[in-house]
Design brief:
Layout lengths: L2 H21 L7 E9 L5 E9 L4 H22 L7 E6 L2 H14 L1
Parallel strand pairs: 2-3
Antiparallel strand pairs: 1-2
Length: 109
C-alpha cells in the first residue's frame, strides 16, 4: 500500500467514525465503530471494516448501516477535501470474532 492510500485510508476511517458517532443511531444495545479502512489502488473504492458489539447484533446492525450508506457517503464527500472521494463499502471486521473464539477455547482448557 502506498503512502497516499494509507493517508486516505486513515482520513476516511476518522471521518466515517465521526459521522457514525454524530448521526448514526445503532440498534439498542449495540456499539459500532470502524476499525480499519482499506482503499483500492485507484482510489475509487474503500472498504470500511466494522467492529460490532455484541456479536448477536451483527446482522441487524449491518442491515441498518447499509441503509445509512448514502448519508455517510454524502457527509464524507462534503467534509474531506479530496479530488476524488472513494465509494464506501462495508464489511465486518472478523478479527474480534476470531479473538473471541480463541479466548473461549483457552478458557475451556
Amino acid at each position: 500500500m502506498s503512502k497516499r492510500t494509507e493517508q486516505i485510508s486513515e482520513l476516511l476511517r476518522q471521518e466515517i467514525n465521526r459521522v457514525l458517532v454524530r448521526d448514526f443511531e445503532s440498534p439498542i444495545g449495540s456499539l459500532v465503530s470502524v476499525s480499519e479502512v482499506t482503499v483500492s489502488p485507484d482510489l475509487k473504492n474503500a472498504t470500511a471494516f466494522l467492529s460490532i458489539i455484541p456479536s448477536n447484533k451483527i446482522g441487524t446492525v449491518l442491515q441498518v448501516i447499509q441503509k445509512f450508506t448514502g448519508h455517510v457517503q454524502k457527509s464524507v464527500n462534503q467534509n474531506l477535501k479530496l479530488r476524488f472521494v472513494p465509494k464506501i463499502h462495508w464489511d465486518l471486521d472478523e478479527r474480534d470474532l476470531k479473538y473471541k473464539v480463541i479466548d473461549e477455547a483457552l478458557k475451556q482448557e
